[in-house]
Fold:
Amino acid sequence: MQIGQGQEVFLGILLFSLGAGIFAASLVHLTWGMILAGIIVLGILSAYGCYRAQKWTGLALALLFFLLGMLRFSAVDTLPASDISHLARETVKVEGILREEPRLSEDAQGGQKQRYLIDVTRVKKQGEDWQKGSGGLYIYAHSHKAPAVQIGDKVNVTGKVRSPHGYQNPGQIDTKMLLKSQGITASLSAGKQGIKVTAVDTAVFQRKLVEIRRHYRERMEQGMPKADAAAIFAMLFGGYDGIKRELVEDFTAVGIVHILSVSGSHISLLAAVMAALGTLLRLPKAATAVLVVALIIVYSLLAGAVPPVVRSAIMGALAFVALALDRERDARRILLLTGLVMLIISPLLLFHISFQLSFLATAGLLYLAPVWQNYMREHGCSKYLAAGISITMAAQLATLPILAWYFNQLSLSSLLANLIVMPLVELMIVLGLFAGVVAFILPFVGSVVFVCDSLLLGIVTEMTAKIAALPASQVWIPSLSFGWSALYYAGLGMFLLTEEQREKAAVRLKQKRKLLGIGALVLLVFIISMQLAKPKKLQVHFIDVGQGDAALIITPHGHAFMFDCGGTRDGNFDIGAKVDVPYLLHYGVLRLDGIFLSHAHEDHAAGCGSILKKIPVTQVITADEGVLDYARSMKLGDNDPLLHKFHVGRQGEQLVVDGVTIEVLFAPPLKDGDNKTGNEASNVYRVSYGKASFLFTGDLTREKEAQLLSEGINPASTVLKIGHHGSDTSSSPEFLQAVKPIYGVFCVGADNSFGHPKPDVVKRFAQQGIKTYRTDEDGAVVFYTDGEHIRVEKYIN
Structure:
């Protein structure tokens, strides 16, 4: 083995061991004493092994870095006593220093929503003195006009502290861990008094950078529509504020959405431009490398120097400089060493999708792209085409398991987009940065260049939309487990073998082909037999959609139905597109045979609109409020063709699929004078399979529960989706005694303003011996049953 190659393998093993230790520590808790003792012992063994050149030294070092990963995770995961997160659910007064520029946006009524990020310095509980505070805190405020505030100013605010909480479902980005990696550990909603600002003459450098970005945005908006300015500004400095939703969706479909957030592609582009300029001026390679690094540093500062930008800049700069100096192998070692150092300093990066994608994409470009590019050039492919295809394939394939886990989609049109659209996007970025500089000196000339950028954006938008509309532009890919991901990367690693190594491997395979063939056949028969022998089960998923209801039913032979779809009352977050659809794709549900909606309230029905637009749905069964109420809840037009799928569920109707019976158990008709969009309109559905049954009651009120019982309907069920998120307006003792559930599920949002589930209701279930789960604490809850036995899995253990 060559020395350089051995170093890469060694660094790769250490990086993998460190990452494995960090991941293990997130699952299993060990005391600091145990970890430190292991580190000391392994450290001594490693030192002795290095001194004596023992063969087992590599294993000792790998175990040492594994424990080091566990130690570093434990250190950063344990927050100090002063951290603001320890005051979750308490109303306090907080003082802190503004960390970044405020985020401002408008609501539907024209009011202004504000988001501030402060570093907490002091905290005061009611009736107590000020105490030292720490941690990053998001502050959300709503007023007609935001107060004037700059980075470094002192901010005072009073409100209720909340812990960060995302949607806890498989394949969903862990919001809490993502924010924690940025030092943000809590949020707070300011009351009517808003925030109070004390101007502080500090952070002059950061404020100057903000002024430069504002200069760019203002100059853009003077010469182009605001939506165009928002899109080009995002391409220059990152962010999605003000961008048209259709543009983001098209960019996502063709695999170039990363261009809307500062990433390694921006760094590589600027480095390539500066390298070309150095070549044009015939500068020495060392001088060109210095200019490249200087430009990357300046650009990173302009982009806000936020952690993702800094990470991309470090990896991009080091790798590009090594490549520019014709030290490709050094670039690979630098990447591995950089990843190692980053994880030691900030172990939570391992769980950050930005780090995962940046590192793997860069690794693909350094390891895979050169191999495939040389192969294509040797077989007559042009230099430009070989470079475009190899770079696109390397980045996509290196990140495939991550894309599969989080998005379950692969863009087949990305190659076409990278060859046709990306050169124009890159030209836009270069022209945009150039225009901002020129506008400082010659405002008119800068405006003209910005107008040209806007025209280019129009061309890019049209081309992207056309490519996104191509058949099979995006294809579904299954989520890969750890084992399958390891096999996948082992397969990719075969491309890195030298010709001599591949010939040796081919000879060995040929020698043992009979044995390998028999083994593969036995394994295939075993897998098929296990699948055939496995009893077919019904799956019932209660999805974490925050303060709302959403459940997925998958029958033994793969037919799928949903019971309510969740949603937000203010419509600010699209639960259907961002939670429901990703959840369905994660479990391989590519079509729905039906959606059963209990009633038209947004927290039950709003998410259905995006599902209908993105996934084929056979039918939608509703309560008796009228189809237009559902249309408004889902933000569909009154004449939208999708509404033809809707029909009212009638009491007593049944649907039998794969031995699973779905029945409309109770459908109260609305009379004149009834509140036609109230909770009393809720339909009740029951799903039965063998001896197991699941009851979905929506927000059924006590009065309607009594009516159901008075009509002689037997609601007995094994599992009860607890009515109205655990409100005391539902789940009467009489109703629970009639249902006789073994399990109950509270579909509820963390720290919701309604106080759901109510303590008395929780106590009522406990007194009756009903085992309950909560989506705010347990995340997604999944029941598996063969009709006789039930197994329960929850996402948060």
In short: The chain has a mean pLDDT of 87.
